[in-house]
Design goal:
This protein is an alpha/beta fold. The protein has 8 helices and 10 strands. The chain has a single domain, classed as Alpha/Beta hydrolase fold, catalytic domain (Rossmann fold, 3-Layer(aba) Sandwich). Helix 1 packs across helix 8. The longest helix has 22 residues.
Length: 296
């Protein structure tokens, strides 16, 4: 899942408002516009490198980052480290948007959690984003998934996951082949929200957390593959109803109709799928004002 970064991207040391140091990468381009990539849970920024290079080649500056607790933003020891899951948006992505907004117009590409994060941004950063294209965004509830995937997810939430977290003090997703290891606090919040059909919108303890979603009015494209078992269209629709004042365009992607073997939850950012989808993603954002240059 992790790809080494090339010289096309330059390391950037970000600092969140609460003082947390974050590892990031900037893919600098000749154009004025910036694209912030909001990654998925447990996915390091290197996974988005090829997409970032594709956008960079079209003249768009791109910023990717590792959330606190994963990748280059991981502390030496995860046991006892207890960040708040929402702070990946309220602090980490907010720092990324602030950096970009100080340098040009800002657009957004979100992957899974990156679709959740828009409504969690502080007002100044939320208002700086002009349009967002989100893939694999959904509510995460097992009831939206096919039976076979539902059983795997329930095992993660109620079997292997809790036992491993209790023993190690963190969630060892890397050993399970799912992604980066997660702090126990992040895993437990993720598990809690995924227990509700509409994710944190149904959590009685999250009423204050989700209040800002009603203030999101920017245009959003929500694209979901029909073989993405974690985020099928019904799951997407359940979540994106929370952006009640934003114009959301739902896009269903049939891999076979596109000549693709599979997309799943992670394939959106793999080169073979990207050859089909990335020009559409940037083209949609161009329709919202993003300035693109001819491919180099």
């Amino acid at each position: 899942m992790h790809s080494p970064e090339r010289s096309a991207g330059q390391p950037l040391a970000l600092t969140a408002a609460d003082g947390t140091a974050l590892a990031a990468t900037v893919f600098a381009a000749a154009g004025p516009d910036w694209l912030v990539v909001g990654g998925a849970t447990a996915v390091p920024r290197g996974f988005y490198r090829r997409f970032a290079e594709h956008a960079q080649a079209r003249g768009v500056n791109v910023l990717t980052l590792d959330y606190r607790g994963i990748g280059g933003s991981r502390p030496a020891r995860l046991r006892g480290y207890a960040p708040d899951y929402a702070d990946w948006a309220r602090q980490d992505l907010a720092a990324a948007v602030a950096h970009a907004a100080a340098r040009g117009p800002v657009y957004w590409v979100g992957h899974s959690y990156g679709g959740h994060a828009l409504g969690l941004l502080p007002p100044a950063q939320r208002d700086a984003v002009r349009a967002a294209y989100v893939v694999a965004g959904g509510a995460g509830w097992h009831g939206w998934m096919p039976r076979s995937e539902r059983l795997k997810v329930l095992l993660l939430w109620h079997g292997v996951g809790p036992v491993a977290t209790r023993l190690l003090g963190y969630q060892p997703l890397k050993r399970l082949g799912i992604g980066e290891d997660l702090p126990a606090s992040i895993y437990r919040q993720w598990k809690r929200w995924c227990s509700y059909p509409r994710y944190f919108f149904d959590d009685p303890e999250a009423a204050e957390l989700v209040r800002g979603f009603g203030d999101v009015t920017l245009p959003i494209a929500a694209a979901n593959a029909l073989d993405d078992w974690w985020a099928l269209p019904p799951s997407r629709d359940a979540f994106f109803a929370g952006y009640r004042n934003a114009p959301v365009q739902a896009i269903d992607i049939d891999p076979r109709a596109e000549g693709l073997r599979e997309i799943g939850h992670m394939g959106y950012f793999r080169p073979k799928v990207g050859a089909v989808l990335w020009p559409r993603m940037l083209g949609w954002l161009q329709g919202q004002g993003l300035q693109l240059q001819a491919p180099s």
